[in-house]
Amino acid sequence: MDVEAADLSLAAVAGAIADPSRAIMLCALLDGRARTATELAALADIAASTASGHFARLREQGLVQMHVQGRHRYYRLNSPQVARALEALLSITDRAATVFRPSTPSALKQARTCYDHCAGEIAVKVHDAMLAEGWIQIQGQDYDLTEKGAQLLARLGIEVDYLVQQRRRLAYPCMDWSERTPHMGGALGAALLELMLKRDWVSRHLDSRALTLTARGTTALAKTFGA
Fold first, then answer.
1. Contact in structure between 18 and 26 (CB atoms under 8 Å)
2. How far apart are CA 6 and CA 23, in angstroms?
3. How far apart, in whole angstroms, are the C-alpha atoms of residue 134 and residue 115?
C-alpha cells in the first residue's frame, strides 16, 4: 500500500469513528460482548432505520462484525486490533466505555439449557476453553473438531464418530443472550450437556431451564476445561 492509499484508508476509518452515534455504539462494544441492533440504536438515541446506515458504514470499514441468530442481529467489534485502537483514542478523552450489565435472572445466568445444549457463564467458558486449547477450530460459520479435540472428547466418553455422522451441524457458535458472546451449539453442544448431566456436573430444575452446577461439576469442569 502506497502512502496516499494508506492516508485515504486511515481517513475513511477515522471518518467512520468520528460520528457521535457511531462512536457511542463502538464504545458500547469495548467489553468484548455483542449487542443487538436495537440495543445499540437505543444507546445512541437514534431510530433503528438510522442505525442501519451506521452499521453498514462500520462494517464497510472493518470495525464491527454482524452475527444473525433467529430474528436478532448482533454486533461486536471485528478484532482485538479495533478494540486497542478505540481504547487508545479513549485514553486521550474523559469518556469511559459503556459497561455491559445483563439483566438475566440469577437462576439462569450461571447455567441453563438453550434448546438441547448448555448456555450461560459455564457454557461460554467451556466454549472459549475448547477454542483456545485447540479442541475445535473455526471453519466458516461453524467449528470443526481437531484431532486433539476428537481424542480428548473420546476420553470423556463422547462418541465422536456418531456426532460427525449426524445430519445436523456438528458445532457452531450460538450467541448467548445473557453473556453476549458465543457458547457451543450443534450436535457437540448437545453431547456436552448430556455428558454434564450424566456425570452429575449439573442438575436440572424441575420447572425451569436453569441448571445448577454441582460441587462435582465445579471440580470436573476446572480440571477438564479450566472453566
1. no
2. 22
3. 26
Strands 211-213 and 202-204: antiparallel
pLDDT digits (tens, 9 = 90+) for 20-48: 999 999 998 988 889 999 999 998 999 98
The SS3 assignment for 33 reads coil
Here the cell at position 214 is 454441582
Residue 96 located in a structural domain = no
Residue 122: domain span: 106-225
pLDDT at 6: 65
Residues 86 and 165 in one domain: no
User: Do 82 and 110 have their domain in common?
Assistant: no
Let me know whether 77 and 160 are in one domain: no
Residue 97 confidence (pLDDT): 63
Q: Are 25 and 40 in contact (CB under 8 A)?
A: yes
> In the chain, which stretches have pLDDT less than 50?
none
The total domain count for the chain is 2
